[in-house]
Amino acid sequence: MKDRLLDAIRAELRARFDRLTRAAKDAHAAATDPGSKAESKYDTRSLEASYLAAGQARQLEDLARDLGLFDAVTLPAFAIDDPVDAGALVEADLHGESTWFLLAPAAGGLEIKHDGLEITLLTPESALYQKLLGLRVGDHLDDPPLFLSEVR
User: Fold this and answer.
1) Which residues contact 121 (CB under 8 A, 6 or more apart)?
2) Is 39 exposed, middle or buried (0-12, 13-18, 19+ CB in 10 A)?
3) Contact 89, 119 (CB under 8 A)
4) Are 121 and 110 in contact (CB under 8 A)?
5) In this predicted model, what pLDDT tens digit does every residue of 82-139 receive, in sequence order?
6) Among 4, 130, 143, 146, which has the highest number of CB atoms less than 10 A from its own CB?
């Protein structure tokens, strides 16, 4: 299952990368287009387009880094009694609802629909990632209030 999950994550990241690449090219074209030249000192179209292009270039760098990490990663299998660690797919009861998290190396916050599950990626920078580390099935957290029901 985890190999297919990784494939789904990679596909989503590549799709986002492709969309953002097209948007960045459009923003760059708008920033450098002679028609964007300021017509007065208050006309900031070109400046705004250049800021947008720069921001999108940074996002592309982040996505490229994330793709590289996911191309290199393998997710270990966990036994039912193993503690949560990097690469774990965790089911938790959060506010009475089943919620799935993947302790991932990158792309924090990304939500992937896979095999009928909606899985949220958590990264080491996330407070919840840190709180889940070392927990086992049956453990509770108070903040946020969750019960760990499965680790894969």
Assistant:
1) 9, 101, 102, 104, 106, 107, 108, 109, 110, 111, 112
2) exposed
3) yes
4) yes
5) 999 999 999 999 989 999 999 999 999 999 999 999 999 999 999 999 999 999 999 9
6) 146
Q: Is residue 52 part of a domain?
A: yes
Q: Are 147 and 98 in contact (CB under 8 A)?
A: no
Statement: residue 7 has pLDDT above 90? yes
* pTM listed for this prediction: 0.86
Same domain, residue pair 18 and 61: yes
Domain shared by 51 and 101, yes or no: no
Q: Which token pair is 92? A: 């938790």
Give the Cα separation of 106 and 26 in Å (integer).
27
Backbone angles phi, psi at 23, to 5 degrees: -65, -40
Q: Are residues 8 and 54 in the same domain?
A: yes
